[in-house]
What does this fold into?
Amino acid sequence: MTQTPQLFDMTGQVAVITGGGRGIGEGIARSFSEAGAAVVVAARRVDEIETVATALRADGGRAIAVTTDVTDDDAVEALAQAAVDEFGSLSTWVNNAGGSPMRMPLSELPREEWDRTLALNLTSVYVGSITAARHIRATAETGSIINISSGAGSGPVPGSAHYGAAKAGTNSLTWTLSAELAPHIRVNGVAPGAIPTEVMLKAVGKNEDQLDELLDEWNIPLGRLGTPQDIGAACLYLASNAASWVSGEILRVGGGAKPR
Ligand code: NAD
It folds into this structure.
């Protein structure tokens, strides 16, 4: 029987994390790297992804940065190919890039913002998943795809209909792809609660100095806001052999279920 630490060991795995330049994606990249995976950090801002990859290498990890816009199909294909060219295979892909800075009633939302939100938060997950699946099948014995969802995808969040619709679609892709890609590739989701990142603070109109207010307003049972490491740890579980019998699940990581 495999010893517990080995179940979480990602040595030999090659992982792509989109939106890995900061926030939750950076936390996932760090968790995977510290567990032994080779990591490909992808996002649009080259300075951010280079900083993350350099820090992971400085800590003994294997990491590269690949500039990618996840709404560009050719760039996503080039990203997968870059992972295989650099590290010889691809086994794990995290569709993390996403978010929505705009909150307003759907009837007031500009049509372009609807299209932009769906492209970034849903279509990119479709393109990323099928691209990843093709490269995983070609280069690895088994693999895993993780989609970063949100609580907005499974209940009403006034002002976030566009974002919630995209995340609900992401949940649906997670369920159906888990069936279509089994048994070779597992597909799971993680739905983070409140993690004070750049896009989240912009969406709720707060800054770094107002985190206590945010905590009061959100009434989180476990008494604190989340961190990128909280989400990184959940993704590590789902990507590792510890979850080798888990697929088609969406794990909520949000500081506890609120009493009704
Ligand atoms: P963030 O703004 O801190 O980071 C987003 C990352 O995605 C950045 O690296 C950014 O450069 C990248 N990105 C944005 N557009 C991109 C594009 N077109 N192509 C490639 N990269 C792009 O945001 P975050 O809070 O870390 O969000 C990460 C994920 O977590 C998102 O999918 C978001 O919807 C989800 N989420 C966040 C929270 C939260 O409270 N922060 C809650 C639920 C879900």
